Amino acid sequence: MFEQIDLKKQMLDEKRPLPKYTVQSLREKLFLEWTYNSNAIEGNTLTINETKVVLEGITVGGKTMREHLEVINHRDAISYVEDVVHKEEPFSEWQIKNLHRLVLKRIDDSYAGVYRDQQVFISGAVHTPTPPFKIQEEMDALMSWYKSEAQNLHPIVRSAMLHAIFVGIHPFIDGNGRTSRLLLNLELMKSGYPPIIIRVENRLAYYNALDKAHTTTNYDDFVELVAKEVEASLDLYLSAI
After folding, report:
1. FRET partner for 238 with CA separation of 20 to 30 A, picked from 22, 24, 194, 209?
2. Which amino acids are annotated catalytic?
3. What would the pLDDT profile of 30-54 be if each residue is shown by its tens digit?
4. What CA dihedral angle connects 16, 20, 22 and 28, to 10 degrees?
């Protein structure tokens, strides 16, 4: 599955270091699209152009404060992801909580970075998230998996499964989807891949692949969905250089 992607990744690596302003413009493009799509999947009604002006510090009339904060918080969370990658910090549960704290900052500070104490359900999904009394146990198992068998997986498989397992646990009251996509890209970027965009127009396929993974432990559809987006991001970078 990954031969073509690995080849494109190798081609990109051979071109490094990439031109400074090309990298800067690609980064701005991908991070805008990442913020817009990740928020739109969760119901944020800001358009991509409105998202852009909010990132520039301008308020959009007729939109809620929460929608503005979701954009600003996501920008800050991406900056944190970049910092972790730059510093080559080992993955930790504290990073997950810190990412979530940034995602929910000023939206619901009482639950920002704090595991939920109530049962939740995912609208439209067959899968029921982990009950609150088992969340810490499941998160411990996730971290144990990551440090052991996950290290033998292809980076794309590892990144996709990290996202899927985490969002299946659904450890927080709110913001799990955004946090899971941040974790997905954190893991990809640590392995030298550009960030990917799960696009709002692919939301149904995305949800269906996740629900299949959670109810059957078959991650193939979700890994394939992620792999396609990895290739799309690599193609974008290669076309620019």
Report:
1. 209
2. 170
3. 999 999 999 999 999 999 999 999 9
4. 110
| Residue 237 to residues 2, 36, 220, 231, Cα–Cα distance (Å) | 18, 20, 26, 10
Please write the tens of the pLDDT for every residue from 9-26: 999 999 999 999 999 999
Q: What whole-number distance in Å separates Cα of residue 2 and Cα of residue 154?
A: 9
How far apart, in whole angstroms, are the C-alpha atoms of residue 211 and residue 135? 19
pLDDT of the residue at 32? 98
Q: Are 103 and 97 in contact (CB under 8 A)?
A: no
Contact 150, 191 (CB under 8 A): no
Predicted TM-score of the model (pTM) = 0.97
Identify the CATH class of 3-240: mainly alpha
Neighbours of 3 (CB within 10 A): 7
